[in-house]
Amino acid sequence: MNFKGTLPTLILETLANQPSHGYRIAQRIKERSQGVLDFKEGTLYPALHKLENEGLVESYEGVEKGRPRRYYRITKSGRGTLAKDRAEWRQLSRAMTTILGEA
Amino acid sequence: MTRLDNWLKQATRYLSKDSVAQVRTEIQEHYESAREAAMIRPGGVTPEEADRLALAALGDAKAANRQYRKVLLTSTEAKMLRDANWEARAVCSRAWLKWLFRAMSVTALLAATAFFFTGSPLLAWTLLAGGIACSRRHFCRSIRGPPAGAFSAM
Fold first, then answer.
1. What is the ipTM of this complex?
2. C-beta of residue B4 within 8 angstroms of C-beta of residue A48
């Protein structure tokens, strides 16, 4: 299932716990949604660059298993955006549940 | 050329040289991780199957290219920045040229005021707009450069 436009929020949520590199971010999203939320991994990096351009995440060079990797971490501004996105999602989710529950 | 190279070629189309290098690095890292994970997990697959799975997980290269072009510098944008930079350097390195552009703006403003009071408001507005455009083009842009964070790679 692919919820258009939700990838940036999912990335911010994944990075809220700890910094990570692209591949791990993709795997965490899939694991945490138990495979329900699926997306093409080639679109992950453009989304990361967009978040970086907006100042919501920042990147730095790191090393994993002797290999250089680009890690991403959430910024203070990113945490603010995530909190806002969470609130909006809860509101939307409640509204949908109310409507669909009545059907 | 491998299938990954083909994918990268399509995904980096129209991007600037530096953006291409950035995309190649990050996608190759990702691809290698996906490939390794497919082979070492219980009931792991053959290297060929791992290649196929890792590439399939990346998805459509053209869709990725559309996304990349929105957030990374394209070759056209890089050329525009280079040209603007050249223009700014050309103007700023010659004091007389800087003064000429400043004088043109002031002259346009004075002429616009004169035309306004002599009953030619249309000519006055045209001169005023031209003066503003001239000063913005040759000074503001050269001093400020591109907006901060507008492009992550050049």
1. 0.85
2. no
